Amino acid sequence: MRILTAADIRATITMREVIDAMREAFIALSTGKAQAPLRNALQAEHGVALFMPSYLEGAAYGAVKMVSVYGENPQRFGLPTILASVLVYDAANGKPVALLDGTFLTTLRTGAASGLATELLARPDSAILGVIGAGGQARMQIEAVCAVRPIREVRIYSRSGAASFAQSLAAEFPEIEFRATPTADDALIGADVLVAATTSSTPVILAHHVRPGVHINGIGSYTLQMQEVAAEVVIRAMIVVDSRISAQAEAGDLMIPLQQGMLLESRMQTEIGEIAAGLKTGRQTDQEITFFKSVGTAVQDAAAAARIVAAAERLNLGTVVEF
Question: Where in the chain is the domain with CATH 3.30.1780.10?
């Protein structure tokens, strides 16, 4: 079995290739050619373990991801709150063939999902990106959006500060101007693409941040109690989800305004895979506001992992162990 670290994964695949894998994954999901049950949760004394299997019809590999969320980890053990691993198996015989760093893979494929949504929904001339959040997920969101649109300026706001984050990105992407801003208003007002990559339970993208023609990626909130994008913004936008079933179970950004009577359920029926497959249309006008809400689905892990494992075998990357 091949063990692949974050560095190994990074060496096997480009962001463009991961975005293409997300297109494949979401089309399969929306056309009934993928299996991805809602995540199962096992509650323990100090945290929760989540299990997410997935398989795309005709794929060489299937995958099972385990994610643990233990809020006391940083204080008790010096470990991250969220840890994940992805087991990949041969779809022809069920043999385990690889174990991947699931924490990095999740960050990578989540960024790529927003890249795909931006490619399908944002105005082609989008040049300014506004980001709330400066963690690892924000890094991948920025890379993915810049891979599909001619972004020339990235503005970043984080309550804990984003100066060093912006400096590190500027060194990596010298052709783009990166600015850490003192307020969320400075980051978002006037931007063409907005990204919320936080764990906030109260909205960080507000009505006055959003001008006509903006595209929004909301990827940080993943429970019914979390809300990154204000209801006043959501009800003005064309809403696109990664999975209708998952959004109804986990997307507070949508379910809170629905429960408040501000949003009709019929507005939440378009999946990004349907647009990618040409079954539904995306942006209609340059003035339309588009909102991609993602809570994540296991098909993303399976599609990305399949490409990564195939490349790792071809390049002989990772550590192979007897199993």
Answer: 2-105+299-320
Length of the chain: 323
Q: Which of 65, 95, 280, 293 is labelled catalytic? A: 65
Token duo for residue 148: 């599909």
**CA-CA-CA-CA dihedral for 259, 158, 211, 175, to nearest 10:** -140
In the CATH scheme, what is the code of domain 122-296?
Answer: 3.40.50.720
Distance set, CA 68 to CA 51, 82, 126, 194, 262 (Å): 9, 6, 37, 29, 34
Beta carbons of 308 and 12 less than 8 angstroms apart: yes
Residue matched to tokens 């995540």: 39
Say which amino acid occupies 156. Answer: I
All CATH 3.40.50.720 domain ranges in the chain, comma separated: 122-296
pTM of the model: 0.94
Does 280 participate in catalysis according to the annotation?
Answer: no
Give the three-class secondary structure for 185: helix
Residue with tokens 């349907």: 274
Q: Which CATH architecture has domain 2-105+299-320?
A: 2-Layer Sandwich (3.30)
Structure tokens at 21: 């894998």
Residue 298 banded pLDDT, cuts 50, 70, 90: very high
Using CA atoms, how far residue 172 sits from 14, 157, 178, in Å, is 15, 19, 11
The whole-number pLDDT of residue 111 equals 96
- Cα(311)–Cα(64) distance, integer angstroms: 19
